[in-house]
Design brief:
- By secondary structure, the chain is mainly beta.
- It has one domain: PH-domain like (Roll), CATH 2.30.29.30.
- Helix content is 15%, strand content 51%.
- It is built from one helix and eight strands, in the order E-E-E-E-E-E-E-E-H.
- Strand 7 and strand 8 form a beta hairpin.
- The protein is globular and about 35 Å long.
- The two termini are 19 Å apart.
Length: 103
């Protein structure tokens, strides 16, 4: 299944963080991150994932890979990339699918 997301590569996420957009494709065995410039990255080295809140509102998934930390959330509504509403139910759906892949 494919999800429209915003994401950040880094150790922390705040309301003022400049995020990137893309899409997340979850297959039976792997997770792929497609960036806005059409680069595709495979996230096959996930160590763990946890649900966290964004300061200022919203929820996101914090994914610990072996070399980087990735924050992602599914987008419900976006206004000029200055204001983004997180789709909580779809973010939870993605989180549960990632957890199933880790087992």
């Amino acid at each position: 299944m494919k999800y429209k997301i915003f994401y950040n590569l880094g150790d922390e996420l705040s309301a003022k963080t400049k995020v990137k957009t893309g899409s997340l494709l979850i297959s039976e065995n792997n997770i792929y991150l497609t960036e806005s410039n059409s680069d595709i990255k495979s996230l096959n080295n996930i160590v763990k994932a946890e649900l966290t809140t964004i300061p200022g509102g919203g929820h996101c998934i914090k994914i610990y890979c072996s070399d980087v930390i990735l924050f992602i959330s599914v987008i419900r509504f976006c206004l000029f990339w200055s204001f983004v509403l997180v789709n909580y139910s779809k973010t939870m759906e993605v989180y549960k699918k990632i957890e199933r892949l880790l087992i």
